[in-house]
Design a protein that fits this description.
This protein is mainly alpha-helical and 560 residues long. The chain folds into two domains: 2-471, no CATH class; 472-560, no CATH class. It is built from 19 helices and no strands. The longest helix is centred in the N-terminal third of the chain and has 63 residues, at 2-64. The relative contact order is 0.11.
Amino acid sequence: MAKKNKGAGNALVQGSILAIASIISRIIGLIYRIPMQNILGDIGIGYYSTAFEIYNVMLIISSYSLPTAVSKMVSAQMAKKNRRQTYQILKCALLFATTTGTIVALILFFGGEFFATTLLNTPFSIFALKILAPTLLVVAILGVLRGFFQGLGTMMPSAVSQIIEQVVNAIVSVWAAYVLYRTGSRIGAILGDKEHYAAAYGAAGGTLGTALGAVAALIFVIFIYMIYMTLFKKQMKRERNVSVDSLGYTMKVLIITVIPVLLSTTIYNISSIIDQGVFKQVALLQGYSQNDIDVWWGIYTGKFKLLINVPISIASAMAASFVPVLTGSYARRDMEDVRNQINLSTRFVMVVAFPCTVGLAVLATPIFNLLFNGTRQTNDIASCMMWIGAVSVLFYAMSTLSNGLLQGIDRLKVPVINAAIALGAHVIVLVALMLFFRLNIYAVVLANAFFALLMCFLNSSALKKYSGFEQEIKKTFIIPAICSIFMGAAAFVIYFLLDHVLIMIGGRIRNAIAFVIAFVIAVIVYAITLLLFKGLSEDEIRKFPKGTTIIRFAKKFHLL
């Protein structure tokens, strides 16, 4: 039992490391997107986001599933102490990544005009697409190396490389966006369309940071890899009478592992492309101007989605850390350990997702006013999106985690089927909301929440069926929900009072002061109420990073 607890606890620690890195990366992303938003405007951000929608789909097709697949295969072989076969897997994965990354990069570079103009009716995003294309190859190789280290049970190379990638991305993106925006303005003035050319060139500058950030992360991971392989190859030489599968057979197993994960992630993420295509075409048919449509989409992707993706990244990190551990437990047919790990990861994600959902909804307006210099009208639209769609954080966190958990117990096809079902229903809901209720961009927000909710139900049913996992309700959902309501009420009251008390201070500074104080008090209220309501036991807290310190602090104030 101690070994099981150690495995689950280590997965939680490693997941927490990756989660912290993901949060730091997202925060950096938020920070640099503020000046980028101000440089590019809503139209420029719309072009930038459109390019990324296409890039993300191509990334999914070429390499997005590789870290998970490589992690699963490496962890299975390392459990057997078979380093020679582990190295064979790594070589196959690098060959696969180089091949697919190159092909898809060429397709995007030379076929970018079709995607931007014909598919998504946003021709000015072509400049950004051209810059993003070579990044696909870099990210493919980077993903393999990250998956290799994750399979070894360490998330540190992935975590550190994420932060390096985002720091370089932030610096270069803002600088290049500013420089190229000015260049585009001059070109646009000559061509008679200053606004759109400036926005398009600026968006391309923003994507340059993504490319160079990925290169910086790859250099770091290669450096760590070279250091580690010195020891790894020495250990490999000591292995005797160890069978190694042929390169062809290993490649076959890799492809068999990759394809289901690829299909599920493709279907899971392609909804954004479909959303954009459906929304823009239906909105044009309903008589909205192209400019209004581009602005709405820019607000949706550049403000709303940017914020909700921060907490969702925690679920992605937890899924990545638990997949190798679950794979090992499932291979041993230790279903008790499998169920314990599913429970632990779910509890952790829900403890974070609930307060994030409530906090984003309650403080939506002050957050957008603090982060973005847009007009009051555009920030009001973003706030309304958040009031409607903050619950998406909860649903996407759960569905993202459950996708990874199903992959960890070798049910790779199940998320594919579930995502396909949810996607079909999602499109029907989106079209209905736009045509019959004329909700324009808010239809996209609601349809996405519906998609994630349906995925939650389908994946939860599958986990119960294949692992025997019975979801605990009270401590996983009810208590975090109640504590989040208390937290939300405290945050709202504190912010409202301070916003009125500090009336003599300038609007933006007053908003910042009120928000920061409300945020800090909200975190304290949530932590206290969670402990008072016994949302986490002492044993569970101990498995968290610095769990012993947290317990000691809580007991000092009689919260445990």
